[in-house]
Amino acid sequence: MAAEEGQVIACHTKDEFDTHMKKAVETKKLVVVDFTASWCGPCRIVAPFFAELAKKLVHIVFLKVDVDELKEVATEYKVEAMPTFLFIKEGKLVDKVVGAKRDELLQTVTKHDHCAPAAATSSA
Q: Any catalytic annotation for residue 115?
């Protein structure tokens, strides 16, 4: 499934979603799930940014779930607003960003990305 690296994977069935989540747990990868809706304006605005992150951070799994298509998954994760970005590590929810907030989304990805260079904390 190397072809999926560097792109946002749209999940159209619960099985598809579960398969990607299980694989991410097995490979210990961070998963960022974009809960979106076709009628959501802010979702469309932030989608290209989310896709750019996926291209740059190929070691992270980026999934997209349409809440109208996969109500079951949206309900399971208690998603109430779109877009909602959930950060899942080893099957556990570790963080969440609600709204089309690019800066907050980037900061949260960086915070949980074990491959990102650590922030410079040395005192000069």
A: no
